[in-house]
Specification:
Layout: E1 5-8, H1 12-21, E2 25-28, H2 34-39, E3 47-50, E4 60-63, E5 66-70, H3 75-80, H4 82-87, H5 89-96, H6 101-106, H7 109-115, H8 122-128, E6 132-135, E7 139-141, H9 142-145, E8 146-148, E9 151-152, E10 160-166, E11 170-177, E12 184-193, E13 196-202, E14 209-210, H10 212-220, H11 245-263
Parallel strand pairs: 1-3, 2-3
Antiparallel strand pairs: 4-5, 5-10, 6-7, 6-10, 8-9, 11-12, 12-13, 13-14
Length: 264
């Protein structure tokens, strides 16, 4: 790593003040992405502002049909929460299959979506459930939050405070995972509410996105067979050592069908 200044703050106001004063500051949550990136010298921030001491960013609550999860809540806490398990079991299952126990006990919801790794799991749930990302400045629709590879709608001094997930009548997340990292080579989150279906796809392209063609088919016929006739544009798929573009396009349909079947 390069030299940097480390600051652990205890309030959102202090975090914003610290990042505004830094030459090239970065927030760190669980550190599961930032620290490896710095170790490989792919990032060299002048200041690292640790959000771990801000208690108001932690916790889970249910109010009516909305599950609110604080940005600094760990994956393990989401997976173990009886509130999440009761309200949105697919979200608890997703969290429980992120990485390994060490990652789940350090990684956070806010850190995951702020980093927006193209193979991360949570973005598919944010999109599929139509969640709202709450920050210290505003509320951002899940459909508008993820803007590109490792890019989001967040401003430099904007802090995610919580994510508001609406309950669904039925939902499920299925992924074809890398056997070593458990990152999603392709992951699909399907949610049905009030007769309307939303599909969030991760791992397949440079950025998590809505599966609009899949939604169109499933809104007309919410069965796995409805996916068969959907054409997935191969030219938009990622292609790397783990899976070709053609294979990822195939996996999008397979994971969607499995998710639909799990919803029934």
């Amino acid at each position: 790593m390069y030299n940097f200044s480390y600051q652990k703050v205890s309030s959102i106001a202090d975090a914003v003040d610290a990042i505004q004063k830094a030459e090239d500051g970065k927030f760190v949550a669980g550190g599961q992405t930032m620290l490896p990136t710095m170790k490989h010298r792919l990032a060299s921030p002048s200041d690292v502002i640790d959000l771990g001491g801000i208690d108001e960013l932690k916790g889970i609550s249910v109010d009516g049909d909305t599950v609110t999860i604080g940005a600094m809540t760990t994956h393990a806490e989401v997976a173990a929460s009886s509130d999440v398990q009761g309200a949105i079991p697919a979200l608890a299952n997703l969290a429980g299959n992120i990485g390994d126990p060490a990652v789940r006990n350090r990684g956070t919801l806010g850190g995951s979506i702020a980093n927006n790794d193209p193979a991360a799991d949570y973005p598919a749930a944010v999109i599929g459930l139509g969640a709202t990302v709450k920050t210290n400045k505003r509320e951002i629709s899940g459909d508008e939050f993820f803007t590109g590879m490792f890019e989001t709608a967040l401003e430099d001094d904007e802090v995610i405070t919580a994510v508001l997930f609406p309950k669904a009548d039925a939902s499920a997340y299925m992924k074809f995972e890398n056997p070593a990292s458990r990152y999603a080579i392709v992951g699909v989150f399907v949610a049905s509410s009030g007769g309307a279906v939303k599909v969030g796809v991760t791992g397949a392209t440079a950025c998590a996105h809505r599966g609009m063609r899949l939604e169109e088919a499933l809104n007309g016929n919410f069965t796995a067979d409805a996916v068969d006739g959907v054409e997935i544009p191969i030219e938009k798929m990622n292609s790397d050592i783990h899976a070709s573009a053609e294979y990822r396009a195939h996996l999008v349909k397979v994971m969607t069908k499995r998710a639909v079947e799990a919803c029934s």
